[in-house]
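Summary for the lay section of the report: proteins are chains of building blocks that fold into shapes. Here we show the chain for Acyl-CoA thioesterase and then a coded description of the shape we predicted for it.
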Amino acid sequence: MQRLIRFSHTDPAGIVYFPVYFDMFNGVVEDWFTHALGLNYASMILDRRLGLPIVHAECDFLVPSRMGETLTMGVVIERLGRSSLQIRINGEIGDQVRLSGGLTMVTTSLDAFGPVPIPDDIRAAMEAYDAACRA
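The coded shape description reads as follows.
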């Protein structure tokens, strides 16, 4: 997934202000669900009442990125649990990894506000994606 670095993403030094990456990660997850997994993220939230809150986030900032550059951000599944998912999102420009972020998310009922098992259709889509990435 491509992410253009915009003026609003940068600090006075002209590089991406680090918290902006976490906002980008959230957008990458939404796009990953919709485009790579074939699952409508908005429908999952609004119709199915299934949330995917981030319970842990980390990021290694390896090389600064500047306004006008375009990051390619890819998702790798690191662990698929009963109700949790750990992914890695790397941001690259060309062959250079600029940042590497890890997210742990938990499938949650938006009505009961508690964890629920990952639904079978979502698990199947994630497993198929993971298998394709590892092939």
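Put simply, here is one thing we learned. The chain has one domain: 2-134.
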